[in-house]
Structures are given as structure tokens and as C-alpha cells.
Design a protein that fits this description.
The protein has helices at about 5-15, 15-25, 30-40, 40-50, 60-70, 75-85, 90-100, 120-150, 160-170, and strands at about 195-200, 205-210, 215, 220, 225-230, 235-240, 245-250, 250, 260, 265-270. By secondary structure, it is of the alpha+beta class. β9 and β10 (about 265-270) form a beta hairpin. The longest helix has 27 residues, at about 120-150.
């Protein structure tokens, strides 16, 4: 009595790449259109359909791509994920377990399974913020004292920070809306750093940059808790708000007020 080969069993269960490709063709969607909707590179979607695992990022990210792609095409995401896990080569899994360099390293992300990752001390962050606020306060006190005494201004254009120059260039109208289209309250705008706490209940594509252009997080993220900090306002883009909970300085952000078809793109400031 003979037993079925592993290839026969795999064909019986179905190829997840073929399922994805067939569903996309049935939906009459091109790879370019799917990539634009999912914020996933076209070559990664092509690699999923061809089951070319060497052209994909690490297993956790590639698996998240497969799940999001399946949901977008109306397939059973659990079935596709199981088929992906079964097809993923063991040698790539071994490489991933020995590779400590991830393609994305979000600022302040909580990592429970790594040992060589930098840990952020909340007290140290608060101390840095306090020093920045104190420096700005003292700078403004000196500037005001100089103006009252009809002396030369201490700060020149080269001494003013990039953020203060941006605030000075913004034109405020009667509604308090700056020239850039963002809500700017120039009279009392805060130049202190702000804290963002983000919880993902499922895989989602999230991109957040701060006012200085620093990318705090970008791309597909797996479920978990993320602590970020930067200079507001923040530019936030989320592909599915149902999987994301966001707070700014411990105040919940109503993502649904910014969303269209579960996708949100907006500026966020305290």
C-alpha cells in the first residue's frame, strides 16, 4: 500500500498563489490597481501569485501581505494564510529566525522577542521634552526682553528653528487655517514633542511622519502595541481603521471622522 506524495497532497489542498491570481482575474483588477489600493508593491503581489518567496520580505510581512490581498479579493483569509504557511520554504524560515535586521523598525515599537533592540526609557523621553520646552521658554524670554529694551534682536533667521520658521511663514485667516491647509493655531502652537500610542488588532498598513519629516512608522504592520513620539503635526495614513486604535498624548483619536471606505489620510496635532 502506497501513500500520497507531498506534491499530491499540496495540489489537493490548492495553491494559494493560484487562488489569489484567479480571484484577481475574476474581479477584473490589474496588479497595478491592487498595489495602489493595498499600499503593497506590485512586485510583492506578483511574487505572492507566483509563490516566489525569495522576492518577498521576511515571513511575517509576507504573510501579512497575503492576508490583506486575500481580504481585498474577497477570499477566505484564514484559508489563504494556512496555505501560505504550508508552502513557505523551511530554509527561508530558518534564515528569518537567525536574521535580527527587520525591513521596518518603527520608532519606539514594543518588541517582546528580541534582546538586542534599543529600549526607550519613558522618564528619559520626558526629561528630553522638558529640556526642549525650557530652552524654548528661555529663548522667548530673552527675545521679549531685548525688544522691550529696543535692543538688537538676539535671534536671526539662521538661529530660528525650522519649525518656528514654518510657523512664521504660515498665513492665518479668520478661521485659523494656515496656508498649507492644516489647522494651525499660531498664537499658542506647541513646539514640544508629542506621544502617539497605537494598537493594531490585525495586520494593517500604517504610515506616520512628523513635522520634521521623520518617518515614525511605514508599511504593513502586524498586530500589537506601538509607542511613537515626534514633533507634531503628524501626517497619518491608514488603510483600514477597523484594525487600528490611536491615541495622541493619551487622548483617543476618532479615526472614523477622517475615514472614507475605512481608509484615512489626515494631519494630527494636539
Amino acid at each position: 500500500m502506497t501513500t500520497p506524495s507531498s506534491n499530491t497532497q499540496s495540489n489537493a489542498q490548492g495553491s494559494f498563489g493560484a487562488m489569489l491570481q484567479q480571484a484577481r482575474k475574476t474581479k477584473q483588477v490589474s496588479l497595478e490597481e491592487a498595489a495602489a489600493e493595498l499600499f503593497i508593491l506590485k512586485r510583492h503581489l506578483q511574487a505572492l501569485e507566483n509563490e516566489n518567496f525569495a522576492d518577498l520580505p521576511q515571513a511575517a510581512f509576507a504573510r501579512g501581505f497575503a492576508i490583506n490581498y486575500a481580504k481585498y479579493l474577497g477570499l477566505d483569509a484564514t484559508k489563504v494564510a494556512s496555505s501560505f504557511d504550508a508552502a513557505y520554504p523551511n530554509e527561508l524560515k530558518a534564515q528569518a529566525s537567525n536574521n535580527t535586521d527587520t525591513p521596518l523598525r518603527p520608532m519606539g515599537t514594543l518588541q517582546r522577542d528580541t534582546h538586542n533592540r534599543i529600549r526607550f526609557n519613558p522618564l528619559l523621553i520626558l526629561a528630553v521634552i522638558g529640556v526642549i520646552v525650557l530652552a524654548i521658554f528661555l529663548f522667548r524670554m530673552v527675545s521679549n526682553a531685548s525688544k522691550e529694551n529696543n535692543e538688537e534682536p538676539i535671534a536671526t533667521a539662521d538661529d530660528v528653528s525650522a519649525i518656528e520658521q514654518a510657523q512664521g511663514a504660515a498665513i492665518e485667516d479668520a478661521n485659523g487655517i494656515g496656508a498649507s491647509g492644516s489647522a494651525l493655531n499660531l498664537g499658542g502652537a506647541s513646539t514640544s514633542m508629542a506621544a502617539l500610542d497605537m494598537t493594531l488588532t490585525d495586520t494593517a498598513v500604517v504610515s506616520i511622519t512628523d513635522a520634521s519629516g521623520n518617518s515614525l512608522i511605514s508599511g504593513a504592520q502586524t498586530s500589537g502595541n506601538y509607542q511613537l513620539s515626534g514633533m507634531p503635526p503628524f501626517n497619518v495614513q491608514i488603510d483600514n481603521i477597523d484594525n487600528v486604535r490611536l491615541t495622541l498624548n493619551q487622548e483617543a483619536v476618532a479615526l472614523e471622522s477622517y475615514a472614507t471606505d475605512k481608509q484615512a489620510s489626515f494631519e494630527l496635532a494636539p
